[in-house]
Design a protein that fits this description.
- By secondary structure, the protein is an alpha/beta fold.
- Among the domains are: 208 residues, Glycoside hydrolase family 3 C-terminal domain (Rossmann fold); 111 residues, Immunoglobulins (Immunoglobulin-like), CATH 2.60.40.10.
- The protein contains 22 helices and 26 strands.
- Strands 1-2-3-4-5-7-10 form a 7-stranded mixed beta sheet.
- The structure holds alpha-D-glucopyranose.
- Alpha-D-glucopyranose binds next to loops.
Length: 730
């Protein structure tokens, strides 16, 4: 990538000598260039724009291949090279859509987004992003298309595995760390999908109708944080419509909110084939149109894109002012300067031990221990024969799930991880037990073999849950937990539920590990098992991380980023919402009451609440202190590890408005800190709350409001386990 650019500039030095001077000047500006109207970069961009023809400008605002947007070779402006995905750099397929099946594009396969969110560890978010940015740089990419931050509104969304949480604050904090990690590598992150793309069903047609308050309090915060705190360089416009206009060119969302209110200086990139109108794309804020070739398949003609020939014609006919195109090109050039695409970047790294250790750490801290009847951690002193049962114990997931697929250098399965850990001092046996089938049928022979094996073992580790099988030849079909399709319910498939109950009858020493992008129904079997661990899709080191937890090398410390309810029908999107939409219209009737906000308001019993997760040790919360400091409220408390093992606790801070003037959730997450402690150790954690922490979005005032009154500050280790409270009057 760098070589190509150097050649380009060298070859053209004479005609573009002036340009060379401009670039040189720009590259001397401070490395962490702030984008502000009077910066040197803006001056350089002005000069570049003056040199460009309208045809050259148009060439930059739409795709020039499957994952690049146009450059201007005459002026030494390179193409922008993009790549999926949120948890690893996608396998190489060059300028078309056919995988190159290369041998040099293996990468680090990180745990998926929901696993990262379950760590509740902001520093890990940064490290995760740093790995991704470094590997993208090593693969010659300029933009990595992540993080995915869409709110988990329904547990059926096939892409929940790529996203983070039902809560906007947790999502925001994890996204900001991730973006800083990526962009400190001089690579652009691309926060997606802007906005309210909360399902895969009819994702490119459904028109979401959502209240301003819900938009502001639930669906926008992660994008606002990514722009304002994260300084993200690009945002991906979602497929769906919002209030009647496609998100990729939506006047209110893109021009009013993102680019004016949030002062976003970067690039709005459409999702692939998410642009549907030239005039709207020109005027309502699409900066780069990607993926329209998908609708033209098999003959991709990039001049036929909406922002190509037809846009050029519109400008030449004077129907749209060229200033709209200039702004788009300005934004693209800003990002090019900011990410050193002219002055040159350092080399990235790929497949290093350090990167793999980050993957393992995120997996270890992201797995959530849901149930433990004094059973875990396991000891091989007690258990000499360990039966590992379940298709997911030996399945690899990296290449599945859709566009976020990863060509992992390796992937340690649960069976391999357990064998690595205890294979020398225990006998490990394996039975598949069940297998995926298109008709969700049960393989009785497999089940029988598994039961026999279970009966002969000292302990059984069952590994089940979802797969995100994605057969690209039948886009959107033949998948269960993947892009392009939603699940139809949360029931365990292929007879897993009966198999778990049958195993429990022949061997009560049963641990169940659930993998997947969201929860499964548990009520029919959880009472028959000793322990349950939610492992999500834990990446290439997932098997080792799982074994480290099961055998006590590390204590589990994950916390649920989404509520685990009994059935999908309990969730507000289904109970009071219009999911998946009526005639492609979907009113978000749940409003701000998404996730725990809803379950608490309606006092609905759930299996495991938001923020919940067990440890191998236990923690005390003491000495809360709340005081005003200027226009902030500073809160502190002490956490003590009262157990026998090192572990981590996540102190979660919720705000409860006492007798609010308007309806508000009973509690809202407004702070969290994760601390590791040795047995007997105490740590003091502190939080700083600002006005925004106590405010709601007033639909009458159309702005954020902080009503005077009493507010309860609640600190706990789950939304349903508050340990300390203190009331403050504002
Ligand atoms: C897909 C996804 C988006 C991805 C893009 C490129 O349809 O919605 O997340 O980055 O297209 O593969």
């Amino acid at each position: 990538m760098l070589y190509k650019k150097e050649v380009t500039i060298t070859r053209l030095i004479k005609p573009a000598f002036l340009l060379g001077l401009i670039i040189l000047m720009a590259s001397y500006s401070s490395p962490a260039q702030k984008i502000d109207p009077d910066s040197q970069t803006e001056t350089s961009i002005d000069s570049l724009l003056n040199l460009m023809t309208i045809e050259e400008k148009i060439g930059m605002i739409h795709a020039s291949s499957s994952f690049t947007s146009g450059g201007v070779e005459r002026l030494g402006i390179p193409e922008l090279v993009m790549s999926d995905g949120p948890h690893g750099v996608r396998d190489e397929h060059g300028r078309d859509w056919a995988p190159d099946n290369a041998s040099d594009d293996f990468v680090t396969y990180l745990p998926t987004g929901i696993t990262l969110a379950s760590t509740w560890n902001k520093e890990l978010g940064y490290k995760f992003g740093a790995v991704l940015g470094s590997e993208a740089k090593a693969r010659g990419k300029d933009i990595i298309l992540g993080p995915g931050v869409n709110i988990i509104r329904t547990p059926l969304n096939g892409r929940n595995f790529e996203y983070m949480s039902e809560d906007p604050y947790l999502t925001s904090q994890m996204a900001v760390g991730y973006i800083h990690g990526v962009q400190d590598q001089d690579i652009s992150a691309c926060v997606k999908h802007f906005v309210a793309n909360n399902q895969e069903t009819d994702r490119d047609k459904v028109n979401v109708v959502v209240s301003e308050r819900a938009l502001r309090e639930i669906y926008l915060p992660a994008f606002k944080a990514s722009v304002v705190e994260g300084k993200v360089n690009s945002v991906m416009g979602a497929y769906n419509k919002l209030r009647g206009q496609y998100c990729a060119h939506n006047q209110y969302l893109v021009n009013n909110i993102l680019k004016t209110e949030y002062q976003f200086p970067g690039i709005l990139i459409s999702d692939w084939a998410a642009v549907h109108d030239t005039w709207e794309a020109l005027v309502f804020g699409t900066d780069i149109e990607m993926g329209t070739d998908l609708t033209m398949m098999p003959d991709a003609d990039y001049n036929k894109f909406f922002l190509a020939d037809s846009a050029l014609a519109m400008i030449k006919r004077g129907e749209v002012d060229e200033k709209y195109v200039n702004d788009k090109v300005r934004r693209i050039l800003r990002v090019m300067y900011k990410t050193k695409m002219f002055s040159g970047r350092t080399q990235g790294e790929r497949n290093t031990k350090e990167h793999q250790q980050v993957a393992r750490k995120v997996a270890e801290e992201g797995m959530v221990l849901l149930q433990n009847n004094e059973f875990l951690p396991l000891s091989t002193k007690l258990y000499k024969t360990i039966a590992v049962i379940g298709h997911n114990a030996s399945r690899k997931h990296a290449t599945e799930g859709g566009s976020s697929q990863v060509k992992a250098l390796y992937e340690i399965t649960p069976l391999e991880g357990i064998t690595n850990q205890v294979g020398t001092n225990a006998k490990i046996t394996y039975a598949e037990g069940y297998k995926p089938s298109r008709d969700n049928s049960v393989d009785k022979k497999l089940a029988r073999e598994a039961l026999e094996m279970a009966a002969g073992a000292d302990v059984v580790i069952f590994v089940g849950g979802w797969i995100h099988n994605f057969d690209l030849s039948v886009w959107g079909k033949d998948a269960y937990d993947a892009e392009g399709i939603d699940k139809s319910n949360l029931k365990l498939m292929y007879g897993q539920e009966d198999l778990i109950n049958e195993i429990a009858k022949v061997n009560p020493n049963l641990v169940v590990v659930i993998m997947g992008g969201s929860n499964v129904e548990m009520a029919n079997w959880m009472g028959n098992v000793k322990a349950i661990l939610q492992a999500w899709y834990p990446g290439m080191e997932g098997g080792n991380a799982l074994a480290n937890i099961l055998f006590g090398k590390v204590s589990p410390s994950g916390k649920l980023p989404m509520t685990f309810a009994n059935s999908h029908t309990d969730y507000p999107a289904h109970a009071i919402g219009e999911y998946p939409g009526i005639d492609l219209q979907e009113k978000y009737k749940d409003g701000i009451f998404v996730g725990y906000r809803y379950f608490e308001k309606e006092m609905i019993t759930t299996l495991f609440p938001f923020g919940y997760g067990l440890s191998y040790t236990n923690f005390a919360f003491t000495d809360i202190d709340v005081k005003k400091e200027g226009d902030h409220v500073v809160v502190a408390c002490t956490i003590t590890n009262n157990g026998k093992m090192e572990g981590a606790e996540v102190a979660q801070l919720y705000i409860h408005a006492i007798n609010p003037r308007i309806e508000r959730p009973l509690k809202e997450l407004k702070g969290f800190e994760k601390v590791w402690m040795k047995p007997g150790q105490s740590k003091r954690v502190s939080f700083s709350l600002d006005k925004q922490s106590f405010s709601y979005f007033g639909e009458v005032e159309l702005g954020w409001k902080l009503d005077p009154g009493s507010y309860e500050i609640q600190i706990g280790n789950s939304s349903a386990d508050i340990r300390l409270k203190e009331t403050i009057v504002l």
